[in-house]
Amino acid sequence: MIFRSPYADVPIREDLTLTEFVLQRARELADKPALIDGLTYDKITYGQLADSIRKVAGSLAARGFKKGDVLAMYSYNLPEYPIAFHAVATLGGVTTTVNPSYTPEELAYQLNDAGAKYLLTVPALIDRALAAASQSKVEELFVFGEAAGATPFSVLSEDFGELPEVPIDIREDLVVLPYSSGTTGLPKGVMLTHYNLLANNQQVKSCEPMSEADTIIGLLPFFHIYGLQTFLNYSLYCGATIVTMPQFDLESFLTIIQKYKVTRAPLVPPIVLALAKHPIVDKYDLSSLRMIMSGAAPLSNELTKECEERLNCKIKQGYGLTETSPASIAVLDEGGKIKPGSVGQCIPNTECQIVDIDTLKPLGAKERGELWIRGPQVMKGYLNNPEATSEAIDSSGWFHTGDIGYADEEGYFYIVDRIKELIKCDGYQVAPAELEAVLLTNPAIADAAVIPSPHRSSGEVPKAFVVLKGEATPSEIMEFVAAKVAPYKRIRRLEITDKIPKSASGKILRRILVEREKMARLSKAVKEDLPTQRLDLLQELEDAPGSKRSELMVDYVKAQVLKALEIQPDYNPDDNLDLEKPLIEMGLNSLMNLELKNRIYTEIGVDVPIQILMGGGSITEVVNFLLEKLALKSIIVGASFSTNENIEDMEEISL
Fold this sequence. Notes:
Strand content: 15-25%
């Protein structure tokens, strides 16, 4: 079953390059601020932006930069960032954006893989940039501002050369080369064309109706496709004003929103969490903020509601990947229907389908499988890696995301898991193989495996399982890795083990470790998350006659099973669930059963033994157990209960 947008497809312009498309209104809005430095308050108007892009492009051309050449941007968010990016694009060149937290070794890898001719950085990163450049074929190093060993970027505006005419094929010629780990392995260059990006901007217009009246806070990093494309290029295309922040600081962030009356804020879940929880937020006037767009990682329903109520501001989520430029699925307008847990519907010109992982058979509504996407925003491929490209994009043009999800009858998508090995930490991709390679350079380590570990604020963090052959403590190993990788890649949890589970061919059986870790974290949560209140259900059960009591409990357990399966967010108790069928045969794996156990205990104070849930027990058996326990304990609303039994049971199954 192929899902499409409820909106009509939009015509995609093919007569403009990306820069021409983004700056269409530059002359009309010549005196309007396009970018403001949130720390220094310096401004660049739309007229100045267009003029600076033209000058820098001419200077780069005079230096010998030509179509197809690559400039690496290793920088924080600055108002000058789009000047460099679009100057390169004007010449038919390619910008490879680099995470400013990268170590010299990580930067050198990307410089060499991308074939960068020039490197542009900031003074704070100059030492790392110089070290990496010395390990690459970079011909010249530029810097925003001034730093020893680098050419000031400002000279490119002074040393003006004539701007050459460059023929650009927008469907074939690359404009940006961000790096992604795809579904596995080391980071790969994602080849995105002019057409990919300008098409995605036009697709997004229907679901993010921004205008010149909007002011956007430029906090999300421009090196990331979410910040670069969905926010920076799109905001300029719409004529909005962008206030940049080089790094996140909560007080500076709140000050900027208040000072510049920011209307829209593209964010990631950890920042939404701070807005919902931190007491300092109440000291600032954030009334101008109308919309928060959260992406890069899932945002819980509870956190969404809490933040919306505190700020009196709408929050909506979307779904995308570096390989899809990035937007693919979103809530389609400000007044659109928002379903809890859903990332929205297909944006225009986009097709999505859910496919069985094993048979590759297309699935219908509410059936789980891998999400595939097809549309004009899908990348050209991975740089110099035809094998990875063919694995990711099939002959029919479908991009295989590696994410597990389902869609309901209205075409709203839900992402519930991933089959790819990547760790998503604070919105960034972390490749386990990269960290495993670092770990194995430690002489005390015989073997290692890295997996995602659930984390309340970061979503996931890297956890290492390590087999030792020498003496080393977990903290020593974590410090060893921290010295070699960017901060977000650091090992945050570590477990010494006797053996790494592997297949006969020697491949790490990562899913075994992932399942083990999820159950361990949930076991801990069950013991800590003790019940504080009782649902109205308990009072209904107390007052109901015997037969009605059974019906109420059946409805309750069915609802919890549906929630655990995540089949139907708005469940209907009359759904046809076989009451006698073992839960494990319904598709409830060990993780889902533990979630079911946790929810029932938290809500009504009865601990269902894991042996019932995992040992072939059915809905009927769970209902009978709960009714028996309720009757034996004479539970009433507001009663308190001993939790010793629960803790002991959880300790038995804790891994």
